[in-house]
UniProtKB/TrEMBL annotation:
<feature type="transmembrane region" description="Helical">
    <location>
        <begin position="85"/>
        <end position="102"/>
    </location>
</feature>
<keyword id="KW-1133">Transmembrane helix</keyword>
<feature type="transmembrane region" description="Helical">
    <location>
        <begin position="114"/>
        <end position="135"/>
    </location>
</feature>
<feature type="transmembrane region" description="Helical">
    <location>
        <begin position="32"/>
        <end position="52"/>
    </location>
</feature>
<keyword id="KW-0812">Transmembrane</keyword>
<dbReference type="GO" id="GO:0016872">
    <property type="term" value="F:intramolecular lyase activity"/>
</dbReference>
<protein>
    <submittedName>
        <fullName>Lycopene cyclase domain-containing protein</fullName>
    </submittedName>
</protein>
<keyword id="KW-0472">Membrane</keyword>
<dbReference type="GO" id="GO:0045436">
    <property type="term" value="F:lycopene beta cyclase activity"/>
</dbReference>
<feature type="transmembrane region" description="Helical">
    <location>
        <begin position="141"/>
        <end position="160"/>
    </location>
</feature>
<dbReference type="GO" id="GO:0016117">
    <property type="term" value="P:carotenoid biosynthetic process"/>
</dbReference>
<feature type="transmembrane region" description="Helical">
    <location>
        <begin position="172"/>
        <end position="196"/>
    </location>
</feature>
<dbReference type="GO" id="GO:0016020">
    <property type="term" value="C:membrane"/>
</dbReference>
<feature type="transmembrane region" description="Helical">
    <location>
        <begin position="6"/>
        <end position="25"/>
    </location>
</feature>
<comment type="pathway">
    <text>Carotenoid biosynthesis.</text>
</comment>
<keyword id="KW-0125">Carotenoid biosynthesis</keyword>
<feature type="transmembrane region" description="Helical">
    <location>
        <begin position="216"/>
        <end position="236"/>
    </location>
</feature>
Amino acid sequence: MTVPITYFGVLLAFIVPPILILYRVARRRDRAWWGVRPLSGLSILIALAVIYTTPLTNRLIPAGVWWYGEGAVVATVWHTPIEEYLFFVLQTTLTAFWLFQDPPAIDRSLGISLAHRLWGVFSGLALVAAGWMLIGGTSTYYLGWLLAWAGPVLAIQWGFGITYLWDTRQSVLVAISVPTLYLWVVDRIAIALGIWVISDAHTVGYTLLGLPVEEALFFLVTNVFVVQGIVMYVWLLEHVHELPSPAGTLSRLDARSDDR
């Protein structure tokens, strides 16, 4: 059965319009983030999203975790439709532009305790371990791969800035939750239209109003990646002067040598 709307049609109808609206609003608001710092962070996150997500989709699609309706996609590169690669770019942009509307306003030093950094890294790696244990089961295959895939990124992000993310949690939570809820609705509509089909065999069977929990988790963790990544990138650039320079390090070493 041919689908009533294509994957590309979903992008045009549901993803591109809010991006254009958020772009226009951000350019008009004094408080909104715009300019080299946030946009360069967005560019980096787009590249990372495509690079890091491509191996995941190209493993899960041929494994039968999900597939696409007849006539839903134009063509595929590897096992993934070109619309899916475009979606990596558009989702990252959509979430970033929403973040730009009301960015964190808390100023904090880059200094974070070692205990906090270790706790952040451990939390991310714990997700990796949980994911690898779940991959072996048929019904937990999709969930396992999501956790194993998400854990390394979260370990890096939390290890670098978990304290700052906690300090800015209100802004970060809003920046994550709104686009995530919106994308859940879009995903549910696309599934109902048969644009893509999620395997019953490779999912645990729990849904949120018809949306498999694995799909909900995917959009949640990817938006967490985007928001945390850009927030910490801008935070780093604003406080980069706090980092010791090579010249400064050499000067201190020379001074210590002279003292001896």
